[in-house]
Amino acid sequence: MRSLLLGLLVLPTAMFGQIVINEVDYDQPDTDNAEFLELKNVGTVPYDLSQLAVILYNGSSGNAVQYRSFADATWPMLQPGAYFVICGNTSLTLNCDHPGGVLTNLIQNGPMDAIALISLPDSVVLDVLSYGGTLAGHVEGTGTSAIDLNTEGTLSLCRWPDGNDSNDNDADFVQGCPTPGVANDVDLSNCGISIGIQERAGAEPFTIIATSGQVLVQLKSPSNGPMQINVHNSTGSLVAQHMAPNEGSWAFPTTGLRGSMLLVTCISPTSSATRKVVVE
């Protein structure tokens, strides 16, 4: 195991690394004992992980303070499209490739913490993620506003679509289900998140069309009364509501919600249905 002590690194204005931070789970209910971070080779040729360092920074003071690092000369060549997982507890983390040396509290929970991937031969920053805020000097664009807050179920921060890197942390990372070593999953119903919505029997009363900047709900006809449309986020909070006639359509804007999972519920006097939609 290499011993690393890297100072504050000045990041270039644009980074297009072949290797990216693809997913981070830094917080679990109760004890943080299943933390992991996942790397992905988004290039077209193998990447030599033995020439990589992963640096973790605590930014709670407003300054970047390195508190942990990972690098190993025995790390393998990572094939295109493949994943590499660093974890705290191998017994609680699937597909873990490298134990991080501690069983709990492997990764800081924020605020304003960061993770960077550094090329060892030249100390070039290949990728960086700032979460819990924007840690100056250790961010692409703006720090992600997505939060790994596990008061219910289990969540992670993940790139969406899987492996996508637009050079902006806030645009690239959303809440998802922990999927170490496999493709990211943003269907939060798979994470054990309860939204308290129950369907009533009846024909599906609407269709959903998600386009750039809005989600369009098209009501089917006929029905025996007006429709109430509710839009909830993944935590069950009501974000939009509309009363509609028994025919027609309604569109609601999705500015700032890219990558979010929404649940659209249409309620008539005799039936209700809920459908999930991921904002593009």
Description:
This protein is mainly beta and 280 residues long. It has two domains: 19-191, Immunoglobulin-like, CATH 2.60.40; 206-278, Immunoglobulins (Immunoglobulin-like, Sandwich), CATH 2.60.40.10. Helix content is 1%, strand content 38%. It has one helix and 19 strands. The protein has one helix at residues 169-172; strands spanning 19-25, 36-41, 47-48, 52-58, 65-70, 77-78, 83-87, 98-99, 113-119, 124-131, 156-159, 173-176, 206-211, 214-219, 227-232, 238-244, 248-253, 261-267, 272-278. The strands form five sheets. A six-stranded mixed sheet has the order 8-7-2-1-11-12. A four-stranded antiparallel sheet has the order 5-4-9-10, with no helix packed on it. A four-stranded antiparallel sheet has the order 16-15-18-19, with no helix packed on it. A hairpin with a 5-residue loop joins β15 and β16 (238-244). It is elongated and about 70 Å long.
Structural class determined from secondary elements: mainly beta
The second-level CATH architecture of the largest domain is: Sandwich
State the CATH superfamily name of the largest domain: Lamin Tail domain
Per the principal axes of the C-alpha atoms, what is the gross shape? elongated
Rg for CA atoms: 21 Å
- The helix count comes to 1
Name the helicity range.
under 10%
Query: How do the helices and strands follow one another from N- to C-terminus?
Result: EEEEEEEEEEEHEEEEEEEE
In the CATH hierarchy, the third-tier topology of the largest domain is known as Immunoglobulin-like
The main pleated sheet reads as: 6 strands, mixed
